[in-house]
Specification:
29% of the residues are buried. The protein has three helices and four strands.
Protein backbone atom coordinates (compact mmCIF):
# COMPACT_ATOMS: atom_id res chain seq x y z
CA UNK A 1 0.00 0.00 0.00
CA UNK A 2 1.08 3.56 -0.68
CA UNK A 3 1.91 5.70 2.32
CA UNK A 4 -0.71 8.42 2.75
CA UNK A 5 0.39 12.05 2.60
CA UNK A 6 0.00 12.79 6.32
CA UNK A 7 2.45 9.98 7.13
CA UNK A 8 5.12 11.56 4.95
CA UNK A 9 5.34 14.73 7.11
CA UNK A 10 8.48 14.75 9.26
CA UNK A 11 6.91 14.54 12.71
CA UNK A 12 10.34 14.76 14.35
CA UNK A 13 10.83 18.31 13.05
CA UNK A 14 7.16 19.38 13.25
CA UNK A 15 6.34 22.10 15.77
CA UNK A 16 3.08 23.77 16.84
CA UNK A 17 1.63 25.84 14.04
CA UNK A 18 -1.03 26.05 11.31
CA UNK A 19 -0.29 23.96 8.24
CA UNK A 20 -2.11 23.18 5.01
CA UNK A 21 -2.28 19.42 5.16
CA UNK A 22 -3.90 18.91 1.76
CA UNK A 23 -6.24 20.30 -0.85
CA UNK A 24 -8.78 17.98 -2.44
CA UNK A 25 -11.09 18.48 -5.38
CA UNK A 26 -14.70 17.48 -4.82
CA UNK A 27 -16.35 18.01 -8.18
CA UNK A 28 -15.55 21.61 -9.11
CA UNK A 29 -14.92 22.62 -5.50
CA UNK A 30 -11.73 22.56 -3.43
CA UNK A 31 -11.61 21.45 0.19
CA UNK A 32 -8.60 22.60 2.21
CA UNK A 33 -7.54 20.50 5.21
CA UNK A 34 -5.56 22.27 7.92
CA UNK A 35 -3.31 20.68 10.50
CA UNK A 36 -3.74 22.77 13.66
CA UNK A 37 -0.75 21.36 15.51
CA UNK A 38 -0.97 22.31 19.18
CA UNK A 39 1.92 20.26 20.58
CA UNK A 40 5.26 19.04 19.26
CA UNK A 41 4.77 15.40 18.21
CA UNK A 42 6.98 12.80 19.90
CA UNK A 43 8.52 15.59 22.00
CA UNK A 44 5.82 16.88 24.37
CA UNK A 45 3.10 14.95 26.17
CA UNK A 46 -0.05 14.52 24.10
CA UNK A 47 -3.30 16.15 25.18
CA UNK A 48 -5.62 14.03 27.30
CA UNK A 49 -8.95 12.98 25.85
CA UNK A 50 -11.01 15.15 28.23
CA UNK A 51 -9.45 18.42 27.09
CA UNK A 52 -9.38 17.31 23.45
CA UNK A 53 -13.09 16.50 23.71
CA UNK A 54 -13.80 19.89 25.28
CA UNK A 55 -11.83 21.76 22.60
CA UNK A 56 -13.70 19.77 19.95
CA UNK A 57 -17.12 20.80 21.35
CA UNK A 58 -16.13 24.45 21.79
CA UNK A 59 -14.30 24.69 18.47
CA UNK A 60 -17.03 23.07 16.41
CA UNK A 61 -19.69 25.24 18.06
CA UNK A 62 -17.68 28.44 17.53
CA UNK A 63 -16.79 27.70 13.91
CA UNK A 64 -20.27 26.56 12.88
CA UNK A 65 -21.70 29.79 14.31
CA UNK A 66 -19.04 32.17 12.97
CA UNK A 67 -20.75 34.87 10.87
CA UNK A 68 -18.08 34.90 8.15
CA UNK A 69 -16.91 31.28 8.08
CA UNK A 70 -19.81 29.01 9.12
CA UNK A 71 -20.85 28.29 5.52
CA UNK A 72 -17.30 27.13 4.71
CA UNK A 73 -16.76 24.83 7.71
CA UNK A 74 -16.91 21.17 6.78
CA UNK A 75 -15.26 19.60 9.82
CA UNK A 76 -13.33 20.40 13.00
CA UNK A 77 -12.04 17.50 15.06
CA UNK A 78 -9.10 15.92 16.83
CA UNK A 79 -6.16 14.04 15.41
CA UNK A 80 -5.92 10.48 16.61
CA UNK A 81 -2.44 11.17 17.99
CA UNK A 82 -3.90 13.91 20.22
CA UNK A 83 -1.33 16.53 19.19
CA UNK A 84 -3.80 18.82 17.43
CA UNK A 85 -6.92 19.17 15.32
CA UNK A 86 -7.99 19.06 11.71
CA UNK A 87 -10.06 21.83 10.18
CA UNK A 88 -11.63 21.25 6.75
CA UNK A 89 -12.88 24.31 4.88
CA UNK A 90 -14.63 24.65 1.56
CA UNK A 91 -12.41 26.65 -0.77
CA UNK A 92 -8.72 27.04 -1.45
CA UNK A 93 -7.08 28.69 1.54
CA UNK A 94 -3.60 29.27 2.92
CA UNK A 95 -2.48 29.13 6.52
CA UNK A 96 -2.14 32.92 6.56
CA UNK A 97 -5.73 33.25 5.29
CA UNK A 98 -7.15 31.53 8.36
CA UNK A 99 -4.73 32.81 10.98
CA UNK A 100 -7.09 35.58 12.21
CA UNK A 101 -9.89 32.99 12.50
CA UNK A 102 -7.62 30.65 14.48
CA UNK A 103 -6.64 33.45 16.87
CA UNK A 104 -10.32 34.28 17.35
CA UNK A 105 -11.21 30.61 17.87
CA UNK A 106 -8.51 29.91 20.43
CA UNK A 107 -9.23 33.15 22.32
CA UNK A 108 -12.84 31.97 22.53
CA UNK A 109 -11.71 28.59 23.91
CA UNK A 110 -9.23 30.21 26.31
CA UNK A 111 -11.88 32.56 27.71
CA UNK A 112 -14.85 30.20 27.72
CA UNK A 113 -16.55 29.65 31.09
CA UNK A 114 -19.77 27.85 31.91
CA UNK A 115 -21.47 24.80 30.47
CA UNK A 116 -19.67 23.28 27.50
CA UNK A 117 -22.07 23.16 24.51
CA UNK A 118 -23.36 19.66 23.85
CA UNK A 119 -22.03 18.26 27.13
CA UNK A 120 -25.18 16.39 28.14
CA UNK A 121 -26.23 12.74 27.89
CA UNK A 122 -28.79 13.60 25.21
CA UNK A 123 -26.29 15.50 23.04
CA UNK A 124 -23.03 13.54 23.42
CA UNK A 125 -22.00 9.90 23.68
CA UNK A 126 -19.31 10.61 26.29
CA UNK A 127 -20.45 13.85 27.90
CA UNK A 128 -18.65 13.27 31.20
CA UNK A 129 -15.22 13.20 29.53
CA UNK A 130 -14.63 16.98 29.59
CA UNK A 131 -11.97 19.18 31.16
CA UNK A 132 -12.69 22.86 30.57
CA UNK A 133 -9.82 24.13 32.74
CA UNK A 134 -7.23 22.21 30.74
CA UNK A 135 -8.90 23.21 27.47
CA UNK A 136 -8.60 26.87 28.55
CA UNK A 137 -4.94 26.35 29.45
CA UNK A 138 -4.04 24.55 26.20
CA UNK A 139 -5.81 27.22 24.14
CA UNK A 140 -3.80 29.93 25.91
CA UNK A 141 -0.60 28.00 25.25
CA UNK A 142 -1.44 27.60 21.54
CA UNK A 143 -2.38 31.29 21.30
CA UNK A 144 1.20 32.18 22.23
CA UNK A 145 2.23 30.38 19.02
CA UNK A 146 -0.57 31.84 16.89
CA UNK A 147 -0.09 35.43 18.00
CA UNK A 148 3.67 35.30 17.34
CA UNK A 149 3.70 32.91 14.41
CA UNK A 150 6.68 32.71 12.11
CA UNK A 151 6.74 31.49 8.51
CA UNK A 152 8.28 28.16 9.51
CA UNK A 153 5.14 27.42 11.54
CA UNK A 154 2.92 27.88 8.48
CA UNK A 155 4.56 25.39 6.08
CA UNK A 156 5.48 21.79 6.85
CA UNK A 157 9.22 21.23 7.40
CA UNK A 158 10.94 19.54 4.47
Amino acid sequence: MEKIASFTVDHIRLRPGVYVSRRDRVGKEVVTTFDLRMTSPNDEPVMNTAEVHTIEHLGATFLRNHPDWKERVIYFGPMGCRTGFYLLLAGEWSSRDILPLMVELYRFIRDFRGEVPGASPRDCGNYLDMNLGMANYLAERYLAVLENITDDRLVYPE
